[in-house]
Hints:
- With 169 residues, this protein is of the alpha+beta class.
- It has one domain (5-162): Pnp Oxidase, Chain A, CATH 2.30.110.10.
- The chain is 22% helix and 36% strand.
- It is built from 4 helices and 8 strands.
- The chain starts with 17 loop residues before the first helix and ends with a strand.
Amino acid sequence: xxxxxxxxxxxxxxxxxxxxxxxxxxxxxxxxxxxxxxxxxxxxxxxxxxxxxxxxxxxxxxxxxxxxxxxxxxxxxxxxxxxxxxxxxxxxxxxxxxxxxxxxxxxxxxxxxxxxxxxxxxxxxxxxxxxxxxxxxxxxxxxxxxxxxxxxxxxxxxxxxxxxxxxxx
Length: 169
């Protein structure tokens, strides 16, 4: 007996429409809060687990000024971000790789205040005992994806390919 017979055999190749694929990606991004940010620098690749918030298909995270990842982004803004849901078996496999360019926003930059509002810094401030009356002044990393490779094995059950590529229109 096979637990999930729809996982056996060749995977379907049907593609979701752009809108349906976007919805699935948005669901993943909004239901998770950890990612791995991959940058490249003089010492090679750097993959850093990070807490994030998303708005639409844009990811926001913060970092300490002068950190290796920020130095890497400053010299090469091309990044990849990996996000995945907890895995309890092949049928639950769900994740995305976002590829694009990262921008570093600092206080005073256009978009910094909006980015900090999306990042919801208040929850970590409470956890760390910091005041809630002043927005942190840490740099914010904003990743706008140009391409997303989305994987969800449950789509096989619906007759769709488990790995699909989204591209910005």
